[in-house]
Amino acid sequence: MVTIKEIAKKAGVSPSTVSRVISNDSRISDETKKRVRKIMNDMDYHPNVMARSLVSKYTNTIGIIMPYSTEKAFTNPFFPEVLRGISKAAHDYGYFILLSAGSTEEEQIASLNALVRGSRVDGVIIMYSKPDDPILLELKKLNKPFSMIGRPVDSDNINYVDNDNVEAAYTAVKYLINRGHKRIGLIKGALHLTVSADRYEGYKKAFNEYGLSIDERIVISNVFEQEGGYKSMKKILEAPEVPTAVLVTDDLMAFGAMKAIREYGYKIPDDISVVSFNNVPLAEFAMPPLTSVDINSYDLGFSAAEILLKYIKGERKIGKKIIKTNIIFRKSVRDRNIIETL
């Protein structure tokens, strides 16, 4: 079995330098890292992670807390894309990831305690944000480094990344209003999640700015699933006056909403325009292709892991990072101004 000493001798460096390369220590130059890693690869050397963790007190692993069970979360393309970003950052820093798979808050808290008290992870990423979250409160008590995806209600001394969801929703609604839509429905996620509440605030902000009144009968809250969007859209379509457009706060929900629109005999975008959030890969293959707000899910995941790992390594202080959004314009919105001027 190849040892660190053999790698060091071949590379012309000390064994401690090889150890620092393995842990991706920022004090080692990129040139040295590249040379040592090539030799490690050529000699088929694989570090003993368990042995290293006993000596260094680091596991080189971060835990991931999902908003609900992984079997549900992975049905939404948002989460795999975020995890892709987390995995890339973790790999860059020589870290592994470990998923928590609790289906209830009690199971998640038990899993969190197993990860932290069992010294299995150096830090934790929470993949969501909601007020009065018992998991966040438990994590604070455990005094383990963590970061969040989503703006915490109390952001003091918390690492987090997020979009400006108020501004993103405001911009999306403003886009619809400027294309002649005055009656705009909203399908939002559960309001106990900060992202849903923020996007609702952006929706209201645009309506207030343009002096439009909100009809709460066409503002529906549901789970971030295709079925949630389908059921919500059916309620909206049963309102006394059907909207000319609907903003959906998640692409998966939008696919369900578009199914309901077609079932009720309406055409997209001729009768009802649809704008959504997340810009998942399937959005461009919807019928018609779905206009969606790109929240840069990969960047959210990468940045959440990066700020956590830099904090663990003492390379940055606690803080936040806001990821930009932009609307990807496709074929699901009708410009009513053009029709009206013919």
Core attributes:
Peripla_BP_I; 6-stranded parallel β-sheet; Rossmann fold; 342 residues; 434 Repressor (Amino-terminal Domain); DNA-binding transcription factor activity; 6-stranded mixed β-sheet; transcription cis-regulatory region binding; transcription regulation; HTH-type transcriptional regulator MalR; 14 helices; 12 strands
Would you kindly provide a written description of the structure presented here, covering whatever features stand out?
This protein starts with a helix and ends with a helix. The longest helix has 16 residues, at 194-209. It has a 6-stranded parallel β-sheet, with helices on both faces. Strands 7-6-8-9-10-12 form a 6-stranded mixed β-sheet, with helices on both faces. 45% of the residues lie in helices and 14% in strands. Among the domains are: 4-47, lambda repressor-like DNA-binding domains (434 Repressor (Amino-terminal Domain), Orthogonal Bundle); 165-295 and 327-340, Rossmann fold. The protein is α/β, with parallel strands linked by helices. The protein is built from 14 helices and 12 strands. Helix 1 (4-11) packs across helix 3 (30-42), helix 6 packs parallel to helix 13 (297-312) and helix 9 (165-177) packs parallel to helix 10 (194-209).
